[in-house]
């Protein structure tokens, strides 16, 4: 699968929020809204916990002022792990924590990261995207799949301010 790009629609993927029986369609999250979706290789991992998620939480007010109506984080972890990670980082009310347990979203976006040697299984490449009514307007995928440069909140903020 090719990596999703600006102009592509979000895949019709199901993710989970808070607990395994709370199914969420990604398209429903962004339907009729402008927002930010970002993905990380793993909850509680160093770069994700020290920089990536905290950046979106600390820049929440700036991002919403620039037009984001919803901000969502996804990872190939279970719903309980994502909920606990969000709670630890005080994401409630700011960032939706979406578990992509079946990799429907990750595969649908063409963002599978082979992290078997590092994290034990396949994961999601680190990325960020600006979404407008289910359509990707900006797609930022880290060149190595896990770095912290083009997918940061500061980059997305600039993109929101220009659109």
UniProtKB/TrEMBL annotation:
EC nos: 1.11.1.25
Top-level lineage group: Eukaryota
Enzyme class, UniProt record, top EC level: oxidoreductase
Catalytically driven reaction(s): [glutaredoxin]-dithiol + a hydroperoxide = [glutaredoxin]-disulfide + an alcohol + H2O
Family assignment from sequence similarity: Belongs to the peroxiredoxin family. Prx5 subfamily.
Function: Thiol-specific peroxidase that catalyzes the reduction of hydrogen peroxide and organic hydroperoxides to water and alcohols, respectively. Plays a role in cell protection against oxidative stress by detoxifying peroxides.
Entry protein name: Glutaredoxin-dependent peroxiredoxin
Naturally occurring in which organism (per UniProt): Coccomyxa viridis
């Amino acid at each position: 699968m090719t990596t999703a790009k600006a102009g592509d629609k979000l895949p019709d993927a199901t993710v989970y929020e808070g607990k395994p029986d709370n199914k969420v369609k990604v398209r429903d999250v962004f339907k009729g809204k402008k927002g930010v979706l970002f993905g990380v290789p793993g909850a509680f991992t160093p770069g994700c916990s020290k920089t990536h998620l905290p950046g979106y939480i600390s820049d929440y007010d700036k991002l919403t002022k620039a037009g984001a109506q919803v901000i969502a984080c996804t990872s190939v972890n279970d719903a309980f792990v994502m909920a606990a990670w969000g709670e630890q980082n005080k994401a409630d009310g700011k960032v939706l924590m979406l578990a992509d347990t079946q990799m429907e979203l990750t595969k649908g976006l063409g963002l599978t990261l082979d992290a078997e040697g590092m994290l034990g299984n396949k994961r999601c490449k680190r990325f960020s995207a600006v979404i407008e009514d289910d359509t990707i307007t900006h797609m930022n995928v880290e060149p190595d799949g896990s770095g912290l440069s083009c997918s940061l909140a500061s980059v997305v903020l600039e993109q929101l301010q220009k659109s």
